[in-house]
Amino acid sequence: MASNNLIKWDLDLIKRYDLSGPRYTSYPTALQFDPDQSAQDLVATGMKTTDSNAPLSLYFHIPFCAHVCYYCACNKVITRNRKKAQPYLDTVYKEMAQVSEWYSNDRIVNQLHWGGGTPTFISDDQMSELMSHTRKHFNLRDDDKGDYSIEIDPREANPDTIKVLRDIGFNRISLGVQDVHEEVQKAVNRVQPTEQTQSVLDTARSHGFKSINMDLIYGLPHQTEDSFKETLDTVIDMDPDRLSIFNYAHMPDRFRSQKHIDAATLPSPETKLAILENTINRLLDAGYAYIGMDHFAKPDDELALAQQNGQLHRNFQGYTTHADCDLVAMGVSSISQIGRVYYQNEHDIAGYSKAVEANNFAVKRGVVMNDDDIVRSEVIKQLICHFSLDTTMIEKRFAINFADYFAAEQTELASFAQDGLIQVNNGVITVTPAGRLLIRRICMAFDAYIPKQQKTNGFSRII
């Protein structure tokens, strides 16, 4: 694989190609999920097309947050009433009992993730209970060799909670930081002193967590090039194993909480680009490898090693090392990938709870991948994970002639090559250092569902 630290900042290319497009955590993307698809048919096809002996990845969505962060676009429930958690968990247990009958088959669970919301909103006892129910229905590892991770708000995690998480099997954590400056934090309603974050970090390390990720967001109110450099310096000193640097997309018409953000205080598009360029350079200088899009990792981290070995994968949690796992997701709005099927649960708690009570499951919409989807999904995965595509490998795997199969895409690929986004040599498409930041745009050329005039409403901007 090509070196993953070669990034060339070409502002002209970025401005020309920076439109809206999918993040390709799935292909087909969620826009193709059909609410008219029969839930029973989706499940039946999933059971029929899954490898019942392959390992599993489990995801649980805990939607509750005690406080609203104004920038947030996640599916969440803002409440300070902790009593709301138990009825929701009881519903999750009913759903879990059903889906384990469909998919468990004693398959080893190599990956597990709790996302939100704020998973640590629930009590220590409830977290232990949730993991106990999971172990009852699925074959969790007990050798600490799984990739068991949880998203943590440092404001909602005391030392006792960190110990409980380690004791019940978690070995990776992801900390939401976003920005270290109080002015920015106040503007987005997330005041979080650096000392608080450092305390959680130190406690996690003392309990032997294997990997720590931190999330940052650029494009928030009052951020400048200099202020975000200070945030980066502070975070680099904390020495996380991975970093996710997300672009804030201001869409107050879609996400009500964003109406609290004064658009006049947001950095200009030019400043955002400068912040991103500085961020990439700073992290590369600090020794992090550029994994792709908004992800960075230390060179000895499993993500970086998987990319080097050609084994990196991408799913709804982002980049991952578990390409061989079906993803079984539980809880409100969660998305599963089973065999040839993607499906999503009901989006609000009332609908989710009602569906589980009636059916023991809550599938709302989904899509069954056809043969063309399978081919294009693999092409997009190779490009977005490895910045390279061996067309000969695709030809052998799917018994096609690449140039003939993708005849309609050749003009666009030639344009990419002419503009310096890709190089094509001996059947290998290689994304150039200048093209890596625009990998989503390159992948869009192989997306059969996006009109070629590139009307991409509903997606965030690439950069």
TrEMBL record:
Binds 1 [4Fe-4S] cluster. The cluster is coordinated with 3 cysteines and an exchangeable S-adenosyl-L-methionine. It catalyses: coproporphyrinogen III + 2 S-adenosyl-L-methionine = protoporphyrinogen IX + 2 5'-deoxyadenosine + 2 L-methionine + 2 CO2. Gene3D superfamilies: 1.10.10.920, tm_1862 like domain. It comes from the Bacteria. It is found in: Cytoplasm. S-adenosyl-L-methionine 1 binds at Y59, G116, E151, I335. GO terms for cellular component: cytoplasm. One of its GO terms (molecular function) is coproporphyrinogen dehydrogenase activity. PROSITE patterns: RADICAL_SAM. Pathway: Porphyrin-containing compound metabolism; protoporphyrin-IX biosynthesis; protoporphyrinogen-IX from coproporphyrinogen-III (AdoMet route): step 1/1. GO terms for biological process: protoporphyrinogen IX biosynthetic process. Its cofactor is [4Fe-4S] cluster. Keywords: 4Fe-4S, Cytoplasm, Iron, Iron-sulfur, Metal-binding, Oxidoreductase, Porphyrin biosynthesis, S-adenosyl-L-methionine. Pfam families: HemN_C, Radical_SAM. InterPro entries: Coprogen_oxidase_HemN, Coproporphyrinogen-III_oxidase, Elp3/MiaA/NifB-like_rSAM, HemN_C, rSAM, rSAM_horseshoe, rSAM_sf. Residues 50-289 form the Radical SAM core domain. SUPFAM superfamilies: Radical SAM enzymes. [4Fe-4S] cluster binds at C65, C69, C72. Its EC number is 1.3.98.3. S-adenosyl-L-methionine 2 binds at Y71, C72, A73, G117, T118, Q178, R190, D215, A249. Belongs to the anaerobic coproporphyrinogen-III oxidase family. PANTHER family: COPROPORPHYRINIGEN III OXIDASE, OXYGEN-INDEPENDENT COPROPORPHYRINOGEN III OXIDASE. Involved in the heme biosynthesis. Catalyzes the anaerobic oxidative decarboxylation of propionate groups of rings A and B of coproporphyrinogen III to yield the vinyl groups in protoporphyrinogen IX. Monomer. This is Coproporphyrinogen-III oxidase. The gene is hemN.
